[in-house]
């Protein structure tokens, strides 16, 4: 087995297994650490700006990649979305939300590294995972010019090969050969992206599992004051 077959035929399962089992074990054994460790008390303004941009960008990127990679190719054609249209949409949305996420991430990184109080209360993995995500984002943004080059030349084969590879992984039929003709920059982005899932259970990212979705649909709370307004 060569390195490419391992990285794109075996490593995805190592990353996904660690992601799921690691999260479950941490929730079962270390619930006290199941939190994002808010540092808002130390600095508020940059946290708000960076966090909003970062979360908007990364949520859009996650679901964009999810839909783009696991949706069967024929479905897009049935919906009237040609290969070139699909690639153009992916380029535009990826560039837009990738840039938004990067701006937010850089703000958060600057705050964590250069605010003495925030830095003093940061764990090693807090800094490491933020660095790793920023590198992953940077490599992802570097794929945009390559994708534009392929699009200008009417070539959507790379996009199709990437989705075929991802769908084969989910079907438990790993097929690294789909990536044989894929540019190195895409392979690097895939490796760093998969590694985020591998690192996930060991970082503050576990707070994603506790996303308060029910909060958006709960009834309004009635808050009363003990003071009576004078008329």
Describe, in plain words, how this protein is organized in 3D.
Helices cover 67% and strands 0% of the residues. The chain is an all-alpha fold. The chain has one domain (3-210): Fumarate Reductase Cytochrome B subunit (Up-down Bundle), CATH 1.20.950.20. α2 (11-29) runs parallel beside α9 and α7 runs antiparallel to α9. It is globular. The termini are far apart. The mean pLDDT is 90.
The domain tally reads 1
Envelope shape:
globular
Mean pLDDT: 90
Helix count? 9
Total strand count, please? 0
Look up the CATH topology: Fumarate Reductase Cytochrome B subunit
Helix content: 55-70%
Question: What's this entry about, in short?
Answer:
The protein is an all-alpha fold and 231 residues long. 67% of the residues lie in helices and 0% in strands. The chain is globular, with a radius of gyration of 21 Å.
How would you summarize the topology of this molecule?
Blueprint: H1 3-9, H2 11-29, H3 45-70, H4 73-78, H5 83-114, H6 116-120, H7 124-152, H8 157-170, H9 184-199
Q: What labels would you give this structure?
A:
about 230 residues; mainly alpha; Fumarate Reductase Cytochrome B subunit; about 65% helix; globular
């Amino acid at each position: 087995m060569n390195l490419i077959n391992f990285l794109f035929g075996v490593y995805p399962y190592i990353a996904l297994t660690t992601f799921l089992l690691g999260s479950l074990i941490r929730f079962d054994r270390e619930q006290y650490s199941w939190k994002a460790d808010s540092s808002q008390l130390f600095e508020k303004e940059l946290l708000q700006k960076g966090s909003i941009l970062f979360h908007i960008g990364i949520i859009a990127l996650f679901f964009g990649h999810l839909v783009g990679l696991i949706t069967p190719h024929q479905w897009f054609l049935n919906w009237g979305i040609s290969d070139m249209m699909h690639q153009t949409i992916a380029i535009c949305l990826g560039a837009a939300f990738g840039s938004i996420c990067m701006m937010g991430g850089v703000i958060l990184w600057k705050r964590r590294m250069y605010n003495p109080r925030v830095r003093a209360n940061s764990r090693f993995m807090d800094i490491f995972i933020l660095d790793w995500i920023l590198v992953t984002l940077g490599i992802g943004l570097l794929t945009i010019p390559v994708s534009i080059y392929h699009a200008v030349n009417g070539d959507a084969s790379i996009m199709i090969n990437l989705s075929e590879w991802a769908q084969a992984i989910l079907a438990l039929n790993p097929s690294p050969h789909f990536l044989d003709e894929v540019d190195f920059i895409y392979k690097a982005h895939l490796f760093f992206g998969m590694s985020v899932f591998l690192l996930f259970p060991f970082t503050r990212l576990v707070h994603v599992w506790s996303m308060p979705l029910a909060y958006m649909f709960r009834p309004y709370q009635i808050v009363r004051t003990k003071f009576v307004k004078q008329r």
